[in-house]
Structure formats: structure tokens, C-alpha cells
Amino acid sequence: MQPLQRRILLLTAATIAVGAVGLARASTNEIRISAKKFAFTPAEVRLKAGQPVVLVLTTEDRVHGFKMPQLGIRTEIVPGQETRVEITPEKPGRISFFCDVFCGDGHEEMDGTLVVEA
Description:
Layout: H1 3-27, E1 29-36, E2 39-41, E3 44-48, E4 53-59, E5 64-68, E6 73-77, E7 83-87, E8 93-98, E9 111-117
Parallel strand pairs: 1-4, 3-9
Antiparallel strand pairs: 1-2, 4-7, 5-6, 8-9
């Protein structure tokens, strides 16, 4: 194989690989959840079992926590930033999440549910 043909082949392979990564990212469902004193919006999210999803968490007012003990997830949501959490719920059911950073009176009501459907 001549050098030019080899370069073209490598460039083509690299382009296909990058396209496949982009396609994989595009096929992952993103769900946006906003945190604000003293609620998550939406508070209920419906997902399909076995399908990967990225929860995109945001807040505008202050730092909040995001804890989902059933899946071993704990992270902070910082104003002006997106916090991305990748999950693939494997079985149907209800999975609770809540804020675990005290944000004032009403904090204890700041929770939500992922409803995983078959």
C-alpha cells in the first residue's frame, strides 16, 4: 500500500470511529432536572428499564445535593454548572432521590422519584 493510500485509509477509519462515538452519545437519552429551594422539577421522571440515560442536573439558586441511595449515587449540583449522571436502570420499579445539602426550612420535602417501566 502506498503512503497516500495508507493515510486516506487511516483518516477514513478515524472519521468512522469518531462518528460512531457521536452516534452513541446522540442515542443516549438526556433528562434535565432542575433543583431549586425546595423542589426538583420535574419531581417524577419516567424511564425504560435497560435504556441508558443521562440526568442533567442544574440549579440557579444555591448548591444542592442529589442522592439516590438505591443506585449508589451522590453528587452536588452547583449554580451555573451542569452535573451529569449516567445511569441504566435495570429493572422496573420506583427509585427515590433527594437533596442531601440542607437548604433551609422545607428542605426535607425536596425529593423526587424515577419511575422505571418495563
